[in-house]
Amino acid sequence: MCRWLAYSGTPIRLEELLYEPRFSLIDQSMHSRLGVETTNGDGVGVGWYGVDAPPLAEPALFRGTGPAWSDLNLRELARSTVSPLFLAHIRASTGTPVQQTNCHPFRHGNWLWLHNGCIREFARLKRDLVLAIDPALYPSIAGSTDSEVMFYLALTYGLRDRPALAVERMAGLVEYLGRAHGVENPLQMTVATTDGDRVWCFRYSSEGHSRSLFYSTEMSALVALYPENANLRRLSEETRLVVSEPLGELEGAWQPVPESSYGVIQKGDDELGRFEPVEP
């Protein structure tokens, strides 16, 4: 499987999360503690929005096929790039080739998407899933992963207008076709997607035992717990982080995302809701 993070808030250098924490995403590429695999070396990617980017601007994207821990280009980019909103991903392939077009995040217009998990027996379901994608979107598919097909199904089902419902419809189709093809528990996913303004995160699996996912405690509560921590004091109240596994051991900093749920990171109050697939 894979490890990922989604950050939104005070602009920071990418390396502050990718490299500097004790259990940074780069450290997790070699020593994952909660993932299915300890090592995630089948590619790395980061998508980010500029500090002064206009609304709905297309994000920048870096994707490499080598292990994250040895990617010197990523190291250079991370120490010099500042962003208020970015998604990052380290890949452990579930069977599709290690190539740039299969690395996350995936981008379409101003949207980014990343995924940890799988569509089980994807080869058996792929034809029916792909045929459900809007023909106008189909030419944009560049890779061969189940994750990218999930993204374009969500776009087909209205991701740009009603993101949570679109992902529920995508999940419902996967489960519907899984049963039709005799595939038990066809969907396992944690997903992050963003339009550059808000971030939606999802945790769901057909068997009800989804991959790990955590969100950061509100900044005001953390500052009250650790008033001497200068790094926390410089972050705004709007700052939020969602991760496959915690980046450190600061007590009280991380809360588990409930099973079968989704969250929205946005200006003002964030949201947490129940995720329920909608079948065709």
List keywords for this structure.
280 residues; alpha+beta; Glutamine Phosphoribosylpyrophosphate, subunit 1, domain 1; 13 strands; 25% helix; Class II glutamine amidotransferase; GATase_2_dom; glutamine amidotransferase; EgtC-like; Gamma-glu_amide_hydrolase
Describe the protein.
The protein is an alpha+beta fold and 280 residues long. The protein has one domain: Aminohydrolase, N-terminal nucleophile (Ntn) domain (Glutamine Phosphoribosylpyrophosphate, subunit 1, domain 1), CATH 3.60.20. Helix content is 25%, strand content 28%. The protein has helices spanning 15-18, 25-31, 72-80, 122-131, 146-156, 163-180, 219-225, 230-233, and strands at residues 3-13, 44-49, 60-64, 82-90, 106-108, 111-119, 187-194, 199-205, 214-216, 240-243, 254-256, 261-265, 271-274. The strands form 2 sheets. The chain has a 7-stranded antiparallel beta sheet with strand order 3-2-4-1-10-9-11. It has a 6-stranded antiparallel beta sheet with strand order 5-6-7-8-12-13. The chain is globular, with a radius of gyration of 18 Å. The two termini are 28 Å apart.
Cα(first) to Cα(last) distance is: 28 Å
- By secondary-structure content and strand pairing, the structural class works out as alpha+beta
- H/E topology pattern: EHHEEHEEEHHHEEEHHEEEE
Task: Report the C-alpha radius of gyration, rounded.
Answer: 18 Å
Amount of helix: 25-40%
Q: How would you sum up the major sheet?
A: 7 strands, antiparallel
Low-confidence runs of at least 5 consecutive residues? none
Which strand order does the major sheet show? Answer: 3-2-4-1-10-9-11
What's the total count of β strands? 13
Q: Work out the strand percent.
A: 25-35%
